[in-house]
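Run folding on both entries below.
>entry_1
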Amino acid sequence: MKLENNWFTTISETESGAMIIVCGREDMELYARSGKFKKRAEIYWRYNGDAKGMPSEAEARLMEPVQDVLQKAMEKDKLAILTGVYTGDNERTWIFYTRNVPAFGEMLNKVLAPFEQLPIEIYTEKDPDWNEYSEMYELRQEEGSDDLFNDE
């Protein structure tokens, strides 16, 4: 399976009405169905946003290399796959599906070591059916595209 780097972007909102920019990865069906990536890891970076809950330009510039090194390291040997990035309501969240949570944690610590301490939190849970990804992909559906897991 070749891992493509095709993304869609859409806008959503929280229950309280805050705007969220959603960047979701395309072409994940084979990975979702493979049964190899059964756990989801979420990395949260909380920040003091502007009036719309978006990061400052300086903070956004700091987030970019963090995302780049995380994605490159995790996807090099397909330890984990970055499937979604949510930005808004004073938080950026990176969503990965991983084969192995302890190895994911070790790699996370290794690749982030060169950075000053970052304001991040990590959450993991079992998600063998890729429920979070499916919910995110439904946001794209609202823009009139095909169903992710359509067997036709």
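>entry_2
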Amino acid sequence: MTHYVALLRAVNVGGTGKLPMSELKAMCEAAGLADVRTYIASGNVLFTSKLGEAVLKKKLEQRLHDYAGKSVGVLIRSAAEMARVLADNPFADGPGNRVVAIFLDDPPSATALDDLKHHQHERLACGAREIYVHYGDGMADSRLVIPAAKTGTARNLNTIAKLAELAAQKRDGGS
């Protein structure tokens, strides 16, 4: 069994895409996932499964579509990948609430950061299947648009650290 983290896109953010985490947990269990646990109400699910990433993504996206009546993107990472995302943070000097990783299905292209819009003081870097952004003064006033990240979902480094910790506890036999 592999330990995974599923990151839902546009769930419980700004009053749209409401999905109670108890409903999400029940959906995941009904899909045959084991050891299901949610973390904060923004669409983060930890679980174990024998299935691979592509099958899990398709299965969860279908269940979410059936529930919400619209597409809900799901990004999947193994526990080891979540730890790598945290370790590979190129902006470790920045506070965890001002650095995000935007999770993508595929590696960002070599030109992923070439067509930014409204780029001001943010620092950006590409990871394995992520785009990291350091919002020096915070996200509130930023108008940054990253076209390459359109179908991704972002989590700040504080959340990623907690997800990596929880996933590692599961992987190492913790509860």
